[in-house]
Amino acid sequence: MSTGETYEPSMGFSPQAARLMRRAEEAARRFGQRAVCAEHLLLELLREEYGPASQVIDLFADRATMLDMLESALKAKPFVGDAETKGQRFEEARRVHDAQKCQAEEERRLFREWLAARADK
């Protein structure tokens, strides 16, 4: 979705979802990006302290680590189509892939710890 769109309940968005979309749009602008991507939505979900998404995140992930990794990836992400060469686009894709892989490993580790803690009870 491009920035500058409106997200209203009449479009099928709940008030909470519309608020999240607006915050994700602001995040995209802060990082100098033209479109709202999944990364911007996840960033804003990670910043929420209350609600069902926040509860799930707290069960399975280290919020601070995920925020740091995601913000680093967004800072490094160029505008779509703005990379000068295919090599730059490939390098950017590799960095994003590495960050996602690191995030997935951290999520698995935390999930195993959570399961072990539950088994000990």
Describe what this molecule looks like in 3D:
This protein has one domain. It contains five helices and no strands. It starts with 14 loop residues before the first helix and ends with a helix. α1 packs across α2, α2 packs antiparallel against α4 and α4 packs antiparallel against α5. It has 121 residues and is mainly α. 12% of the residues are buried. The chain is flat and about 50 Å long.
Key structural traits:
5 helices
Largest sheet: none
Annotation field: number of helices: 5
Percent of residues in helical segments? 55-70%
Question: Residue ranges: pLDDT <50 for 5 or more in a row?
Answer: none
Secondary-structure element string = HHHHH
Spatial separation of the terminal alpha carbons: 45 Å
Strand percentage:
under 5%
Total count of strands: 0
Structural class: mainly alpha
Structural domains: how many: 1
Round the mean pLDDT to the nearest integer and report it.
79
- Judging from the principal axes of the Cα atoms, what is the shape? flat
Over all CA atoms, what is the radius of gyration? 17 Å
Provide a concise account of the structure shown.
By secondary structure, the chain is mainly α.
How are the secondary structure elements laid out?
Blueprint lengths: L14 H16 L7 H10 L4 H9 L2 H14 L9 H35 L1
